[in-house]
Design a protein that fits this description.
By secondary structure, the protein is mainly alpha-helical. It has four helices and two strands; from the N terminus they run H-E-E-H-H-H. Helix 3 packs antiparallel against helix 4.
């Protein structure tokens, strides 16, 4: 577990890719999100994980990243633009 913990500790102070806010305590500690939810059968592969703040991880829950972005956009949540940009970056990175 130590290498995984080191990744989370290294992310402290970095902007959350889902909201853009710095990941730091006491309310925004970094956490590991499974981009494609494990509850839907997706694995723990490195390309299926992102370090995001705890509130965003909780808000996303077991939604796919696209569904999360859609929900945020429908509700007028400012995070929608961040999540959409992150999703587009991932599509370019992993599908090119």
């Amino acid at each position: 577990h130590e290498p995984r913990r080191a990744v989370l500790v290294a992310a402290i102070g970095s902007p959350c890719p889902y909201c853009g806010e710095p990941m730091a305590g006491p309310d925004r500690w970094p956490s590991r999100d499974h981009i494609k939810p494990r509850s839907k059968g997706y694995g723990r592969t490195p390309d299926n994980q992102a370090i995001v703040c705890q509130p965003c991880n909780k808000a996303k829950g077991s939604l796919s990243l696209q569904r999360f972005a859609n929900r945020l956009a429908r509700s007028g949540d400012m995070r929608a633009a961040h999540v959409t940009a992150f999703l587009q970056h991932r599509l370019l990175t992993f599908h090119s």
